[in-house]
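dude i think i finally got it to work??
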Amino acid sequence: MDANGFGKVVDVLRAFTPRAEILLEEVPAPQKLAAFSYALSADVSNGLVGDAEDEIASGRFVLLHEPGGQETWEGEFRCVTYVRADVDVAMQEDPLLPEVGWNWLLESLSLAGCKYVAASGTVTRVASASFGKLSPRSDEAEIEIRASWTPLVSSPNDIRTHITGWSTLLAELSGLQPVPEGVTAINPQANINNRGRR
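look at this
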């Protein structure tokens, strides 16, 4: 796939509309990992408005493309992601949380109908306690997932399932209520074509 073909894949990503609580923005992509790259950042809110609104998760989705592929990828494309979300302190202490987090990723890709190979990654539990002048703050805990997989892309539209699966993972980590089947969430950001382009 040449630059024009990769541009068509990127157009599919730019046209993707996530659920209303997820705000996507195009950001500079890493330039040295592959011949072609594209990146999006995501901020997930709790869906409330005004002072009650709060960011509960964030992430980044990077699509790499190397004509001819790279040996470790087992293909010409690679999806790379980092996501983090606040979790209950008690949940952070669960020794099974990393395994659960990894299963959330795989299940999100599966639900979206993604076809891929060579998935790999890490799941990290992060806990912080405040001291001194910050001691009135309550303890905080997060889960972080860093992962990559090789999407099987035969046409530009094939990448849509992967950005869909990734957005599902963000919603799952954030504890957002599922959107009922047959219902389309209204999102004020129609797409990301006119925001954050570099």
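Confidence is low (pLDDT under 50) at residues 183-191, 193-198.
im so relieved honestly
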